[in-house]
Amino acid sequence: MNQSSKTSFDFLAPYYDRLARIVFGKHIVNVQLDLLSELRANDKVLIVGGGTGWILPEIFDRYPAIQVTYVEASPKMVAQAKAKLDLELHSQVQFVVATHQIVKEQSIYDAVITFFFLDVLQESEQSDAIQKLGGALKKGGKWLLADFQLRKGVHFIWQWVLLQLMLFFFKITSNLHITRLPSFENLFDQHEYKHEVLRTYFAGMIFGKSLKKL
Ligand SMILES: C[S@@+](CC[C@H](N)C(=O)[O-])C[C@H]1O[C@@H](n2cnc3c(N)ncnc32)[C@H](O)[C@@H]1O
Predict the structure, then answer these.
(1) Residue 166 CB less than 6 A away from ligand 1
(2) pLDDT tens across 56-98, in order?
(3) Domain boundaries of the chain, sorted by first residue
């Protein structure tokens, strides 16, 4: 059975942002805000797994004319995202309560945003998701990606422990059965995407990347 159909972030929706900020502080926010500089004024943007939507007002503050399709599996997360958005901006956002599987490979978006989303997919779903969301992106469009990573080095042990705690927490609160992070380098084929921007945060455990579709 498809894992995402059983997983739900509904329970966490009221607490998610606060918890994320308690654990990761400003880093979990800054990695996302910093990547917004990759967008352009009139972009058509696909956001998948956007959570509570705190990023939406930030996007519209910077780019008032942008058009957004917001695909998010949790109805409670989408309700929060709608509530965060000024009424006059609702015509610029299409909210879709569904999983990423609803996205069509029609190359209509200038940018795809997946912030801390790919890591909640099962390994068996990841390459399909890349194929699908990449298929929705125009040639020359940008994929803005923020996520966790584990790198060998002095910080490895505490970051590994923190990751295990997070995975356990998501298992009991969201029925998410993930045992390791995606291998992002392998998922994004070097022939299809040019890696343009890479920034790291939180002693390297968080990264933000902009990939250009070739
Ligand atoms: C870890 S949260 C990240 C939320 C937000 N991007 C952030 O960084 O604050 C992952 C989000 O992805 C949503 N999600 C999980 N599986 C999904 C899927 N297959 N398609 C769309 N959204 C999904 C969850 O409901 C949740 O809101």
Answers:
(1) no
(2) 999 999 999 999 999 999 999 999 999 999 999 999 999 999 9
(3) 3-213
Q: Where are the alpha helices (DSSP H) in the chain?
A: 16-24, 27-35, 55-62, 75-84, 123-136, 156-174, 184-187
Choose the residue to mutate in 2, 56, 72, 114 for probing ligand 1, maximizing ligand atoms within 8 Å of C-beta. 72
pTM over the 0.90 mark: yes
The secondary structure of the chain in percent helix, strand, coil, rounded to multiples of 5, reads: 45, 25, 35
Select 3-213's CATH number: 1.10.3710.10, 3.40.50.620, 3.40.50.150, 3.40.140.10: 3.40.50.150
Q: Reply yes or no on whether the pLDDT at 24 is more than 50.
A: yes
